[in-house]
Description:
CATH superfamily: Alpha/Beta hydrolase fold, catalytic domain
Oligomer: single chain
Number of domains: 1
Amino acid sequence: MTAKRFVLLHGGFHGGWCWRDVASVLRAAGHHVTTPTQTGSGERKHLLSSEISLAMLGDDLVNHLEAEELDDVVLVGHSFGGCAISIAADRVPERIRHVVYLDGLVLHGGQTAFGVMPPDIVAARRRQIADEGGGLVWPVVPVTAFGIPADHPRAAWVARRLTPHPASTYDSPLPLRHAVGNGLPCTYIACTAPAYPALEPVRDWVRAHSGWDWKELATGHDAMVTDPDGVAALLLAID
């Protein structure tokens, strides 16, 4: 068996911690795994500011790949982490073997997260940011919003670790020089039980786009928490 290199990037409210169980499975199978945390999130929550942009989150990931001298990487982005993996694919494609969006946000160059989400969801999030987040953050939401049942064995673990998401990133344009994916092999893993409503337009685009592989997991949005074995199995099957 040839060992693979996996870089697993978290989504909004989360940090590298959320990949604990998936990373354990991959490492037990003999593979190299890193789980970076982006500026303003997780253990880097002290860096939260109104200056955080998608470009900065992309810098975080590219710098991680370069500092760890990683290449031939299977790069995985969950949810909002899809933005940063698109930037990495755009800037350092020579380091990346395969790009995987785990129920991820897929934007094209110049698009914003709020620009592609359903209008009712955008309006609700803007209200929360203004009323409860002081205009700076989208406040932490219940774990059930990520498809984790309240009585799930890891629900309390997730709830303890969630941190507010920087509001500035939702209106920040994605800086890409090439088409999303930059010609690299791309796989989209859709979590379907239940489906995450904010990603409906994204999933429609991916399904209609030729050249990307499409997989499904019958689990909620936080599949790395509720079905780590299923996520790991799909990642291990990627060439």
